[in-house]
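Consider the tokenized backbone below.
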């Protein structure tokens, strides 16, 4: 697993052993970032259920202003910390060791881009999605990664389901505000 492009291009990211963390496959990450490549620079990013932090790190490498990494697992956040140090992107990052719901209830400042890639088939995505929608800027994007056979809602707060892309057994879906033209 590596950073695809930007300031930290080519830097290898640490992935812990075991099945507790399921990193986004590189081809999926590359396609995801190709779809939003012109919407990253200067933006505030949320990497909820951060795991290794690779999505938020990729966004920082591509010019995001700041990224907040949230995970309830201390071991995951230790990996995020190490990956941020190795890529030289730690200064633009905030790491939060807390449950997603607690974080979203406490967070006041809105996000421009949110990555939601929780453990599969736990119902966490369906619970987190409307809460995240309430913490987004109107022009923001919520990006969800989930198994193809999972159901996700058509709307989340004022955000509506837009384009979806399938990569094998993985689905990526974009949500945008109902008043913003879909891209």
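A designed sequence for it:
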């Amino acid at each position: 697993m590596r950073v695809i492009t930007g300031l930290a291009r080519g830097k290898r990211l640490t992935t812990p052993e075991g099945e507790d963390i399921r990193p986004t496959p590189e081809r999926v990450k590359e396609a995801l970032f190709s779809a939003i490549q012109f919407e990253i620079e200067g933006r505030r990013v949320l990497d909820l259920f951060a795991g290794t932090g690779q999505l938020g790190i990729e966004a920082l490498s591509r010019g995001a202003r700041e990224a907040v990494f949230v995970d309830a697992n201390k071991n995951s956040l230790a990996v995020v910390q190490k990956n941020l140090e190795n890529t030289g992107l730690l200064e633009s990052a905030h790491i939060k060791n807390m449950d997603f719901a607690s974080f979203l209830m406490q967070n006041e400042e809105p996000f421009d881009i949110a990555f939601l890639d929780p453990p599969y088939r736990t119902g966490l995505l369906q619970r987190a999605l409307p809460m995240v929608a309430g913490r987004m800027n109107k022009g923001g994007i919520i990006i969800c990664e989930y198994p193809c056979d999972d159901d996700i809602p058509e709307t989340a707060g004022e955000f509506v389901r837009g384009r979806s892309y399938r990569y094998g057994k993985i689905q990526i879906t974009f949500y945008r505000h109902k008043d913003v033209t879909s891209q």
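The chain has one domain: 26-177.
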